[in-house]
Structures are given as C-alpha cells and as structure tokens.
Amino acid sequence: MIATKVTDLIGNTPMLALPVPARQASLLLKVEKTNPGGSMKDRMARSMIVSALETGRLKPGGAVVESSSGNTGTGLAITAIEFGLRFIAVVDHHASPDKVGMMRALGAEIRYVEGDFREDEVAVVERQRLAAQIASELPNAMFMNQSDNPANPGGYSELVQEALTQANGTINAFVGCVGTGGSITGIGRGLKQHDPRTTVIGVEPAGSIVFGQPGHPYFQSGTGTPAGDTVGLVLDYGCIDEGVQVTDTQAFETARFIARTVGLLVGGSTGGAIWKALELIHSGKIGGNVLVIVADGGEKYLHNIYQDAWMAKRNLLDPGIAETLETWLGQRRKLAA
Ligand SMILES: Cc1ncc(COP(=O)(O)O)c(C=O)c1O
Which of 90, 205, 219, 324 could form a disulfide with 248 if both were Cys (CB 3.0 to 4.6 A apart)? Predict the structure, then answer.
C-alpha cells in the first residue's frame, strides 16, 4: 500500500526477537522507533487529537498545547500537520536538544519553562502549569494533558493486536516503562484481555515515585514521575503485577550494549526495560515470550547517553553491566573490544 499522508505510516512496526537460550525465553522487541516521529508516542498523539476533534473539544484550525519531553510533542506535531492545527510544545532544559530540534523542524512552536533547575531535575510540574496557562489564554486551544487523557492509553490498541499477531498469539509477559502510564495501561490491559495470565511488569527510573519509593533526581528521559509531581490519572495500577526500579547506569549501559552487540540503536528508557526483562527472566519470575517496546531510538540521545564523556562526567559508566548482559544473553553475543 502506498500511503497518502505521513500519519498513515504510524503503526505496523516490526518485531525483533532476541533469544535468551539459558532460559528458553525470547525477548520480543517491538520496534516502535520506526514510526514517523521515531517513537511509540506517535500512536497516542494521533489518538488524542482525533478524539479531541471527534468530541468537539478541539475545533478545526485550533491550537494544541502540550508539555512534553519530546516524543509526545513530535507525534503531536506530525498529527497537527495532518489536521492543519497549530501546535505549541512546552519543554524544559531536561529535554534532549535533538528532540526539541525535531519538533521545531516539524513546525512546532517551542516554549521553555523558566526557572533555575538542576540538570537531573525534570520540571514537569512547571511544564504542566505553563501549558495549561497558554491553552487557557488562547482562543480555540486545548491542553492535551497526556497524563490524564484517556485517549493516551486508548492509542495503543492496534499495537496490542500487531504484537499478538507477530507473536502467533502468545505473549507471556510484558515489561514496560511507566511515565504517564499510558502505554503500560493500554498495552497491559489489552494483553490481559487476550490472556489474563499475561504478567505485566512496570519499570520506573530509580528516583521516580510511581511505585511508592522515595524520589530523587534521575537522568532517564520521558519515563517515570519525579518527586513533586502527581502520578497520571491514566495509569491503571490494576493492570500491573509488579512495579520495579532501574538505575540510570543499568538503563544507559544496557542501551549502549544493545546498540553495539545487536546493532539496534535504542533509547535509554528502552535500555532500562530490557535490563529488567532479562533480570526477571533469569530470576525465573517471567519466561516464554516477553514483550518489550523499543519506545524510541538512540538517534535521539547521541549527545548524551551514547557519549562516553557525558556518561563519565556523571559517574554513569559501569562495564560490569555489559558483562552481566553477555552472560544473560549467552555466548552468541560477543562484546566488541
Ligand atoms: C522514550 C520514552 N520512554 C518511555 C515513556 C513512558 O511512556 P508512557 O508515558 O506511556 O508511560 C516515554 C513517554 O514520553 C518516552 O518518551
């Protein structure tokens, strides 16, 4: 089929299996970075805009305003083009400069929150406040509010069907990142509807407060809820069997390992989900077909997590992570020298 608009290219993403021979399990990577905006968030962004237009909360020619670390904003920028809408993205210094550049290139207007924030501190609360304010001051504008918008989890129903078809109907476990909670809720619920025995594991950065641990700053981008922020209303804890934490070092070193040994350039949050999935497979907690979403690609993080100097300066390097991964994935995957 030849597409006639870019949003037709959202979805139908490929799946890559990584065998875990010692446990006779398979890590099924759903490669969402092949969506036109480079992340899974294209799906929910279009879903939120279509739903707002259908319910009349957003009128043709109006403006969409959203607080985003970059991926939701990129998806919104692409869908705003489809429907001829204005899009204003509210970001903070924590957003990857490449992600902000992408949104700008796609016609988004960028507004930075002001304030003196630490490098590893996410200004989500401030971003939300400014986005709501901008939307209230503009005529025919809507604050998308992805954390509380039911069309966020609703945007992942096709992903569930695609993944089940690709896995021949059997997905035994799903290990997913939790930011707004939209993807884990949409995907987790869908998988459990298909088979209630599916184990759903939520992964948040160490320092995020989603699963009740004390908050502290972290570097993982787009995922988790920082201290001071409230967990999104879209997150359905009922579809998560267990919530776990991953450190910045585990997440980033895993992403770097996957890039250089598998050849798939993944983002940091995906690295964290892969690390936790392999750890849980090896502890015997989950097994069989284990789904992990490649939420976005490493192309968006070439200036931070893929730079040795950036990692070293923040004390995030640990060669032991690669050694453990090498053991978990078996002898087949040899480390580059
Ligand atoms: C790279 C990345 N990983 C994970 C997440 C978390 O996804 P969700 O908001 O669906 O919980 C996001 C959300 O922005 C993201 O951009």
Answer: 219
